[in-house]
Amino acid sequence: MSGAEPLDAGLLAPGRAGGAAEAATGDRAFLQAMLDAEAALARAQAALGLAPARAARDITGAADAAGYDARSIALRGREGGNPVIPLVADLTAAVAPASAPYVHRGATSQDILDTAAMLVAARTLDGVLTDLGRAEASLARLAAAHRETVLAGRTLTQHAVPTTFGLKAAGWRSLLLDARDRLRTVRGSLPVQLGGAAGTLAAFEAYGADGPALTRAFARELALADPALPWHTLRTPVADLAGALAFTAGALGKAAADVLVLSRTEIAEVSEGSGGPSSAMPHKANPVRATLIAAAARRAPAQAATLYASMAAEDERPAGAWHAEWEPLRDLLRLVGGAAHDAAELARGLRVHPAAMAADLRLTHGLIVSERLAVVLAPRLGPARAKALLSEAARRARDGGRPLGEVLAAEPELAALIDAGLDPAGLTDPARYTGAAGALTDRALERS
Questions:
Q1: Which of 71, 137, 216, 337 has the smallest count of CB within 10 Å of its CB?
Q2: Cα dist from 335 to 181, 199, 287, 293, 322, whole Å
Q3: What is the pLDDT of residue 207?
């Protein structure tokens, strides 16, 4: 193994390997975010006359992750339990002696690491939102193009009643828009953290600062929100972020789950634009994008659960609860970032096969519209008799492999109704029993 090879190259994480979310959440990205927070704090203090402008420029100039050894910082971070302590030492050594007293002045490690986490989240969410936009645009086109494409609706794995692929795609898009709205809200509320040793801003005040004014200036420097209070043990920002990310993973996972079912060989109603290969079977084109999204959807809730559990944090700064957040938060951002990118590619290339949908609708010989027949015949024959007649007709259709409409047309009890205009063939046509699917699709597509 080469000494330059990364410790985590993404070998077991194909969903995020090489993607934008991986780069935005890597060690170098977190290191840069911590340095950005330190530099912004120095600039904010300078803007309020609490530090020399020269010192702020010096610290900002030294805040380049390329000049720091992340592995060394990680190893030295074991001593104090977090990476900020050795980073501050390295940053202090990197600036001029006159600037050194203004590095990290008044702050505590959690101020820097929490702020860095919010920066990393903001930068990652910007990419996620872009990918969700790409995915929903593709799904809107699919929904419009297949507004009238009929397929079997399935409940508890079985054919239920007909629906349309347009309505299904519109539903996927609706979930993505719900996820987008939640992520946008969270993205706009991600706050800086600034509280000092125990959330009172006492050290900043001792240096002559107005604590809330300094927090506002700090937030402006980083384009993050200004929190009402230091949130060292008030973990609403992390919990809200966890919830929105887990919801997004689930929303993407719903579409992926449907694609995985519909792309089975024996169903073949959809297929990925460019399926993935198999190591042993040359004929296969696996639904890889949907598979990776489904994997992310299964993992995300557990990561979010850890972040929710960490809300029960004791005192003004906790031992363990805060530390437990770091890896799950990064994993959750990576999972959703990778899934959103895969969803955009999946939606863009998804192939729809209406002929297969039509063939599958015929598998039950018209029984898929038995609900409609029950509604039509009950007022004419009485509910009990209509049910009994349809049950017997369904049995004969299944046993004889005959269309239900043909069986009903030969039913003596229905002869008078047929003479009066009852059309068994039309009533058993799945395309004539999709309810308000078209109108619902149109309504869903009105949402921007």
A1: 71
A2: 19, 32, 18, 8, 21
A3: 95
Residues 302, 308, 312, CA angle at the centre, nearest 5°?
135
- Given CA atoms 310, 316, 319, 323 in this order, what sign does their dihedral have? positive
Q: Which of 54, 71, 72, 278 is catalytic?
A: 278
Active site residue 216: no
CA distance 243 to 226: 21
In whole angstroms, give the CA distance from residue 251 to residue 297: 8
**Is 141 in the active site?**
no
The whole-angstrom separation of Cα 445 and Cα 174 is 9
Catalytic residue among 43, 123, 317, 372: 317
AA letter at 116: A
